[in-house]
Amino acid sequence: MADDFRDDVRAAIDGMPEEVKRLLADKLLGIYFVHGLDSSAVTDVVLNRHGEAIGAVVAMDPKAFMQRSANDWISWKENTPFLPSPTMTIAAKIAEPGRDSRMAAIQFLLLHEFGHVVCVGEAAVPDWWLDAQQLKTEDDAYSFLAIDWQVTEHAGDRKIVPRPHQDFTRRDEVVYYGDRPLSADQIVPLYTGLQGSNFATLYAATSVYDDFAETFATYVHSVLMNRRYEISICRAGTEVMRIDDFWVRPCSAEKRRYMQDFLATERPHRPLRRPAAALLSDMATLAPGPADDTGQAAFMGLAPFLRLDLAGIDLLPIAQDLLAQAQCHSIDANHWMNLSTAMFCIGQRDLALTVQAQALAMQRHYSLAALRQPAKLKLLILAVPGDLAANVPLDCLLEDCDIDLEFCYLALTQASLPALPDHDVLFVGIGIGNETTSLLAMLEGALATWPQAVINRPTRIPNLDRNAASTLLHDAPGVCIPPTLRVTRAALAEIAQSGNGIEAACAGCRYPLIVRPLGSQAGRDLETINSPQAIPAYLARVDDADFFVSNFIDYSGDDGLFRKFRIVLIDGEAFACHMAVSSHWMVHYVNADMYKEAARRDEEAAFMANFDSFVWRHDAALTAIFNRTGLDYLGIDCAETRDGKLLVFEIDHAMVVHAMDPEEMFPYKQERMHRIRDAFRDMLVCRAADAASVWKPRRERAAR
To answer: What is the pTM of this model?
Structure first.
């Protein structure tokens, strides 16, 4: 998608009144650019697994606008219900000469589509996705419908029709963008009938849904924005009829009052994780489609699914749709990998692993082309089978970049390195775990003299294990990291039964104790244990065989709140990813009320703006972490203790780093996240240009 078109869409939305943006805040899930719509745009609803509407998406066809100014586009649209005529034409104007641009056309079109979006869940008109038999027949069931429409029932068949005094001859035969155009001779009779009705435009007269959308669009355009709207009908170049702006006519009074109230009414914020006003995106559709000459679906990676999930969109219907289509794509490895990712995202881990195994049995290599082409270089990521935490999700960090990604999945039992696809830089993206130890050892030997640059040497990755990390950093200057020990289920049960002090069984540990299963991510079964008596209840809830135990350290501030930071080190330089503020000690960004609490976002913004001072305070600790781990790319989840040390919860290169949070709610994040992306990209470019430097001893980072 051309950047200038995307810029026009953004400018069109930016120029809309604040009342409109406020109505969209909890309802507009995204704007997609799709070719071949046979119209300018369409809007449809997104339902959750219970059939409840959570918002709507808009799909636009850029080709409808590429060569058209605002007045050209609206004139073309108004002529679509009629057969072309050499003598009879409709000329419409929605922009003065100085504003007659493509952006103005996009803005008017989006106002119409946003009219569909903002009425979702409002009972202004019936839900358009429901069966006709579900229509309510009470006169006051739908507030906007009651103005000019009614629900009728005949022989059990319900339908929506205009009230008798609003109908006019051949109104129901008008179809925009349709394949049954009327004769141009019908233009004047139809517009004459329109003039005697309460419909804002001819398009509004086609259905109650387009009546609301056109009423909304023209009210915002003409009344709130004080823009032009007129239609001139010409025969052989001579004007025979002029339709004035609906909103200057007396018949508009009732709808004017309705729109004034609708736009002025404060609506409660709906409890969705998605706070987005407009997620402008031209990311590929999640429905499988041909991506190349082989007919295979496009490999998606994690980023598109994560973006939708962060937007609060229920991924279950998407996963179900991919699953339903799997039979038609039985030999399409890309489709199976996409389905696997969707299943992981909705929590179906066992099924996801099965589907992933099916895909990997077909092929081990998957390509993800850079959004920005031509690509600067090609990055090969070595990965392993497993869930979303098994590998580094670099496609999320590099989502909007000029780096082609090649994923090569190695078997955990791989004895030697297979033939690899062409690449400029190789990244060892394999996560930590017992099952990867031998594979990483094999890779270290295989990559020792690799001709391309290697990022994150394999022998360094085991240092990220929680137990190994606590040993590695226990005496690092400025670092506070409690001893983390691995214990078996039987050992925990013995501690509970014997009543012996925890120190006897786990050196350096004391109550309160933090317990979590090995491999646990995102707080799964992570709990505090305050005494031996609490252990049996924990083991009754958790079935795992092995656990990590460590000391709980109270890192709350003077206000009782807990603050957790995510930092990344790229070639030793520290960057801020986020800061989460929570009333609970187990802090995760998505449930820390960062979306609900503006004050917490303000605090995060201040943290990012003053990140240099954070780095200065903890420079010795960050330097020690970089030098001791020896990793080129590393994530750190951490906090600050009351005595000023860097409290390290976890170090891992597989942490998710992304720029997907809604920009209108987190305006301070985009620039910071782009810094991370650009720093990572620059590191890749430099390493590719001078691969020989990889074989020299790594230069240690010096503390300031």
So the answer is: 0.59
